[in-house]
From TrEMBL:
It comes from Timspurckia oligopyrenoides. This is JmjC domain-containing protein.
Length: 149
């Protein structure tokens, strides 16, 4: 898979994999990460969730992707944030700030965004929650074509 990511991945046929179990438990230790990566007052907000609805990632999730790979444009529930550490290559981020409910509505309309149904964690139970807003719009398609022209 890694070889395919390096040699075959493109915007037209991108390779991407997310795995919450790929990183061995001993590598998840904060003592393994460089100290400059650790956030002061870092807190795992999922530790406050009932055990049965906590995500299985236990603080570490590996993302592997080749050229053109992307996740859908999305906004996570509870403003879930994570620390990303790139081992190789580069990642381009896009942040869009909606300052009012009206501006958020405009973003959703222009991006053809849709609300994810509550499939995250205990979806049918009392703790079910939606996965936020999502859009399949590729904000980097033109950027990528211009760079490779």
């Amino acid at each position: 898979f890694i070889q395919l990511c390096a040699t075959e991945s493109s915007h037209q046929n991108a390779f991407f994999h997310m795995d919450e179990n790929l990183i061995p438990q001993n590598l998840r230790s904060p003592f393994v990460l460089p100290s400059w990566l650790l956030l002061e007052d870092d807190q795992d907000w999922f530790a406050h969730f009932p055990h049965q609805v906590r995500p299985p990632c236990a603080g570490a999730c590996a993302f592997l992707g080749g050229h053109g790979a992307r996740s859908s444009l999305h906004r996570d529930p509870y403003d879930w944030t994570g620390l990303n550490y790139g081992l190789e290559g580069r990642k381009v981020w896009t942040f869009m700030r909606a300052t009012t409910p009206e501006s958020a509505k405009i973003f959703h309309q222009k991006l053809n965004a849709y609300r994810q149904p509550p499939v995250a964690w205990d979806s049918e139970g009392e703790y079910g929650l939606g996965a936020g807003w999502e859009s399949e719009v590729d904000l980097y398609w033109d950027f990528d074509d211009e760079r490779n022209a």
